[in-house]
Amino acid sequence: MYRKAGLWRGRRVSAKPSIDTGGAAYRPAHFKDTEKMTTRREFLEQGAATIAALAVPALARAATPRFAELKARPARVQLAPPTYPKTEIWGYDGAMPGPELRMAQGARIQRSFLNELPQASSVHWHGIRIDNAMDGVPGLTQPAVEPGQGFDYDFVVPDAGTYWYHAHNRSTEQVARGLYGALIVEEPEAPDIDREEVLILDDWLLDPETAQIDPDFTSRHDRSHAGRRGNFIATNGRFDLSLDVKQNERLRLRLINAANARIFVLSIFGMEGWTVALDGMPLSEPKPVSEVLIIGPGQRADLIVDVTAASGETAHLVRVEDQEGVSQVAFPVSGRAAAARRGSPHPLPPNPRMDISGMEKAVTARLNMQGGAMGTLDAATLDGERKSFRQLVEANQFWSFNGTIGMTDTPLVSVPVGETIKLEIYNDTSFPHAMHLHGMHFREVTKDAALGPFRDTLLMFGGETRTIAFVADNPGKWLFHCHMLSHAASGMMTWLEVT
């Protein structure tokens, strides 16, 4: 069933409502073909071809926790098929993924984080417009939590939507070892659905002999190219996730990309549906899923789908890869939920403070990305000194923002609370980057000066120039970085200040 050379490819999807079970295969861990796909158009064209064919910070302490515990600790889980040994991971409460945290909009999260790992850690609550002291960024909002110590996280969740939490110290390693989980904030009135499924997509870089995680988290190739790419792809920690459904059943699929670097190109088969939210924030109108959905690292998407496949068939969430459709999640159909389908869903209720005003007086800034393999960077500032690209390679640092590698002493931009910011970003590199803003959401300013969907992570392809705008309404020091985590570790981090 396996060849010991690289990637679990999963189950191919044909134009028929069935799966080719004639054998899956491993492929080399690094995809030269995928690495060449650097533009949004290339991702869309590949997908189209496939579809056509188919509040107060707590001090670190080891005392009795004040709140419910959230422990980061080593564990062993059956990640690969049962013929392989269990994989040693790091998980919240020892689980993969970590426990789902679910609460009502406006509720308060109170968790005592306890670190039982062999290295310091912290927890970032990705996408939540959170109090700055609770954001979980060591060196910027809190100290890293040392082994055997803890930190109390206590904050209100203002926005309904699909979010997640993950480690934010030595993230390339800790997230790759499994330190993440879903954070779901429910609307006051649930949409008209029969049920929902939270689907966390990830890839793992495993030794094909032992099924253990590859311990090289500082690979020069990963840092200078597309990032750490896994050779074993899973959903909710399962390579063969299958969920029983009924014909005409209406589902809400909450999709979370927890991968270090993989961009998931997705489609649906045996289902018809609508995108209703991106990065947790509702769209003004549901958008029919008529082409592939591209989800970069850190991004999320909420779909409402109707099962159209007949009883006895299988619907799929499809991953588009090398112009093939591979089943990411299977949905075997048995029986009917209703005699006929429902009409189009209503929009989800908007979250507060989604409007952006003051564009004509916005503070403007620019961020130039450079570096990486096949890039134009010949020198940059590292640790206060100007260094040649050869010296940067020797330091295992490859990417710069505005000519500087890593965090600066002064912020990219500093504004009083309430100011509007327009940030122009130029990706002068050969690779995609998923730019994540902490603490606030933004809208993209399109070429016709319209505003795109409200998001917290912007997926940018090589050569693109994009502009985002947001109201700086959340005081504090906020990280802005690439969520290809190897890229962040090798230079792609900066910060904003709202005073």
Give structural notes.
The protein is mainly beta and 499 residues long. Helix content is 8%, strand content 41%. The strands form 7 sheets. Strands 1, 2, 13, 15, 18, 20 and 21 form a 7-stranded mixed beta sheet that branches. The longest helix has 14 residues, at 40-53. The protein is globular.
Compact overview of the structure:
The chain has helices at 32-35, 40-53, 171-176, 220-224, 389-394, 485-489; strands spanning 11-13, 19-20, 68-77, 87-92, 101-104, 108-115, 123-126, 150-156, 161-167, 180-186, 195-204, 232-235, 245-247, 250-257, 264-269, 271-278, 281-288, 293-295, 300-307, 314-321, 324-336, 363-371, 379-382, 385-388, 399-401, 413-415, 420-428, 433-437, 442-445, 451-455, 457-460, 465-471, 476-482, 493-498.
Give keywords.
mainly beta; single chain
User: Segments where pLDDT lies below 50 for 5+ residues?
Assistant: 1-9, 14-35, 51-61
Number of contiguous helices:
6
Query: Quick one: how many beta strands?
Result: 34
Roughly what fraction of the amino acids lie in strands? 35-45%
Shape: globular
Amino-to-carboxy terminus distance: 58 Å
Oligomer: single chain
Helix/strand class: mainly beta
Mean pLDDT score:
90
Main β sheet profile: 7 strands, mixed
- The helix content is under 10%
> Nearest-angstrom radius of gyration?
22 Å
